[in-house]
């Protein structure tokens, strides 16, 4: 693969943990998804940071899940 | 927020050392054949073929390549079914973009005498699947076939033409290497493939970053495919479409599988980075918009199957103008007309 195998391995292992942490935040993810989906209805217009609040909630839940799994030991 | 280099669909590989930048994308192959007509006047360069070769090599060298082969195996078996449907034997056949040889494993020695398997990735050719037909592996690009005119009775291509830059030229080359009355059977990804992924990424990127860039490669429309085949000189062509829907736990698993299949993005206009936030947002949107009842998310693969024949005198031709003996207006009485004909015979 490309140059630095150590960086590569770290990045991929971090990404591999994403689905697990996302599943821990089902409600926030659904709220964000609903907000974005609502903007696709006729008459809605999707622009930057339209759903910033919901995304912040999702992100903080995600980071909390990350801290929890880190504390519990990979 | 730290930016991490993403490797899923958007991945930029530095060129191999010593390759001057202007030669990227050009393939220097000593081709034994000079196909009629040079590259079509509107030849486009959408995909980085060098990168695609590296991606396919990487995918073939994974510890468990069979884990990601399910789609190609399925389409390969369907193509093999279609080969059996043709009531003919093919002494010499070519598999373009064969991967690990998904079609050959389903065919038998009586139908196909000898199989040439061509792919751009040498690692895939090294790990071909078992088959009873004698095979020859050739390292060849789909657009620059190193074969003489009128060589093959059958050319098959399963899920590899969607990465070809100059599709009209590739189809013309296929017709060139076919014998008269030879047949081309192909399967390509169609316009609706991965539309859920495309939409989710588009919406998430618009919301998070204010704009979006293409992440799923452009596919051919079914009308265009018919025109392309006709333009390449194929006769009696048919295109039909099929949809395979695969359920995944989530968007990340889908992207991992796409990379494992060797189907990562290699378009020149791809973005090098996909922000962690955008990925998270896209996964959330994907799950919410397209989720099944059991919580999994579907991914649609629309496959176009096409068949075309190279011209031969024995093939049916449209009748001469003015040679009709029955009018369309009498279509309602077709049963009586046919029984009349039988009586007169």
From TrEMBL, chain A:
A single GO BP: mitochondrial respiratory chain complex I assembly
InterPro entries from the UniProt entry: NDUFAF8 (IPR034595)
Organism domain of life: Eukaryota
Gene Ontology CC terms, in alphabetical order: mitochondrion
Listed name of the protein: NADH:ubiquinone oxidoreductase complex assembly factor 8
Organism per entry: Equus asinus (Donkey)
TrEMBL record, chain B:
Family assignment from sequence similarity: Belongs to the methyltransferase superfamily.
CDD domains with a match to the protein in the record: AdoMet_MTases (cd02440)
Keyword Transferase tagged: yes
PANTHER family, per database record: ARGININE-HYDROXYLASE NDUFAF5, MITOCHONDRIAL
Domain Methyltransferase type: 94-185
Superkingdom field: Eukaryota
Pfam families, per database record: Methyltransf_11 (PF08241)
Transmembrane segments: none
Name listed for the protein in its UniProt record: Arginine-hydroxylase NDUFAF5, mitochondrial
Species for this entry: Equus przewalskii
InterPro entries associated with the record: Malonyl-ACP_OMT, Methyltransf_11, SAM-dependent_MTases_sf
Keywords: Methyltransferase, Transferase
């Amino acid at each position: 693969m490309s140059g630095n195998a150590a960086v590569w391995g770290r990045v991929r292992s971090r990404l591999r943990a994403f689905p697990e942490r996302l599943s821990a935040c089902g409600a926030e993810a659904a709220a964000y998804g609903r907000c974005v989906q609502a903007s696709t209805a006729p008459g809605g217009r999707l622009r930057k940071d339209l759903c910033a609040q919901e995304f912040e909630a999702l992100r903080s839940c995600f980071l909390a899940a990350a801290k929890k799994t880190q504390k519990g030991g990979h | 927020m730290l930016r991490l280099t993403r490797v899923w669909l958007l991945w930029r590989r530095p060129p191999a050392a010593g390759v001057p930048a202007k030669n990227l994308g050009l393939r220097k192959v000593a081709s034994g054949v000079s196909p009629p007509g040079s590259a079509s006047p509107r030849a486009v360069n959408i995909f980085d073929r060098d990168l695609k070769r590296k991606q396919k090599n990487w995918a073939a060298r994974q510890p468990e390549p069979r884990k990601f082969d399910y789609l190609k195996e399925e389409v390969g078996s369907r193509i093999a079914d279609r080969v059996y449907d043709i009531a003919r034997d093919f002494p010499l056949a070519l598999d373009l973009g064969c991967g690990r040889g998904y079609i050959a494993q389903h065919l038998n020695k009586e139908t196909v005498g000898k199989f040439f398997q061509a792919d751009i990735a040498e690692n895939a050719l090294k790990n071909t699947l078992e088959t009873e037909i004698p095979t020859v592996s050739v390292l060849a690009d789909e657009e620059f076939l190193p074969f003489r005119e009128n060589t093959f009775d059958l050319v098959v291509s399963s899920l590899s033409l969607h990465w070809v830059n100059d599709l009209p030229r590739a189809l013309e080359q296929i017709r060139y290497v076919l014998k008269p009355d030879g047949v081309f059977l192909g399967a390509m990804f169609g316009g609706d493939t991965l539309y859920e992924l495309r939409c989710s990424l588009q919406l998430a990127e618009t919301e998070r970053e204010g704009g979006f860039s293409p992440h799923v490669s452009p596919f051919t429309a079914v009308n265009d495919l018919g025109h392309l085949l006709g333009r390449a000189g194929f006769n009696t062509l048919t295109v039909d479409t099929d949809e395979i829907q695969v359920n995944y736990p989530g968007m990340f698993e889908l992207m991992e599988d796409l990379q494992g299949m060797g189907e990562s993005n290699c378009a020149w206009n791809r973005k090098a980075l996909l922000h962690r936030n955008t990925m998270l947002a896209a996964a959330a949107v994907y799950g919410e918009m397209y989720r099944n009842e059991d919580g999994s998310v579907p991914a649609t693969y629309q496959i176009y199957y096409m068949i075309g024949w190279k011209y031969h005198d024995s093939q049916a031709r449209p009748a001469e103008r003015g040679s009709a003996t029955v009018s369309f207006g009498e279509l309602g009485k077709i049963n009586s007309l046919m029984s009349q004909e039988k009586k007169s015979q």
